[in-house]
Amino acid sequence: KFCILPRPELLKKQFRPCAFLSLRSSDARGEVNRKPLGKAIGELLRLKATYMTKKITPLLIFNGQAEEAMQFYISLFQNSEIKQIIKYNSEGCEKEGKVMRALFTMNGREYMSSDSNEGGHFTSTPALSLFADCNSEEELDRLFDRLSDGGKVLVPLHKDDFSKKFGCIRDKFGVSWQLNLRYESKDTVEGNVCFANNKEVRPDYRD
User: Fold this and answer.
1) How far is it, in rounded angstroms, from Cα 59 to Cα 61?
2) Residues β-bridged to residue 60
3) Are 101 and 169 in contact (CB under 8 A)?
4) Residue 59: strand pairing partners
5) What pLDDT score does 207 carry?
6) Which residue of 8, 110, 147, 206 is surrounded by the most CB atoms within 10 Å?
7) Are 69 and 175 in contact (CB under 8 A)?
8) How far apart (Å, rounded) are the C-alpha atoms in residues 172 and 102?
9) How far apart are CA 125 and CA 176, in angstroms?
10) What is the dihedral of CA 142, 147, 149, 154, to 10 degrees?
11) CB neighbour list of residue 60: distance below 8 Å, 6 or more residues apart
12) Residue 152: CB partners within 8 Å, gap ≥ 6?
């Protein structure tokens, strides 16, 4: 617990109000500690920073195709754009012209993107996918055709208990998508994480 109190020894003297404020706190043993106002405010600000996370944004890492992938994705959805892009610019660098860090939106939701800087080949898994709810069957079919072009259909379009029409795709950039036409739908794109043991994973998901 924290409270700001006047320091008793200064109450009889004439000081500016901020000069005789202190922070009173109780530790786990119930002992009372006092700190000058400056240190008190600093501690409160540090506590606030400790318990606050500014934002959590999905980051998609590609193997040299980040800019091409972003251009492709923003062509699929309304209210989508590349908001910022920073590229490697060291002359003669192997990664010159590749994306160091980028920020883009799909259907108004922000995503980050970059090209791998480790030199290895990054692959994704359908256990972490983008889940898109569609307003109409025509919209779902359009997205399914565009996203599966050059990619792989993991689960063909079909009717399910929770959906009028549903299917899963790994696109040509390696990103997995779940497309859904639910009974009352609004166009959204969400991140989706699936947990399963090996016996429950669909065979199509393993490669």
Assistant:
1) 6
2) 113
3) no
4) 112
5) 44
6) 147
7) yes
8) 20
9) 7
10) -110
11) 66, 69, 111, 112, 113, 114, 175
12) 169, 170
Tell me the CA end-to-end span of the chain in Å, nearest whole number: 53
What's the angle, vertex CA 90, arms to CA 70 and CA 98, rounded to 5? Answer: 15
Residue whose structure tokens are 């540090």: 46
Q: DSSP letters of 56-112?
A: ---EEEESS-HHHHHHHHHTTSSS-EEEEEEE---TT-TTTTSEEEEEEEETTEEEE
Percent of the chain's residues with pLDDT above 70: 59
Give pTM, 2 decimals. 0.64
Tell me: the pLDDT tens digits for 49-79? 666 667 899 999 999 999 999 999 999 999 9
Residue that has been written with the tokens 């009974």 in this structure: 183
**Cα–Cα distance for residue pair 186/43, rounded to 1 Å:** 45
In sequence order, the β-bridge partners of residue 179 are 132, 167
Q: Find out whether 98 and 87 touch, Cβ atoms under 8 Å.
A: yes
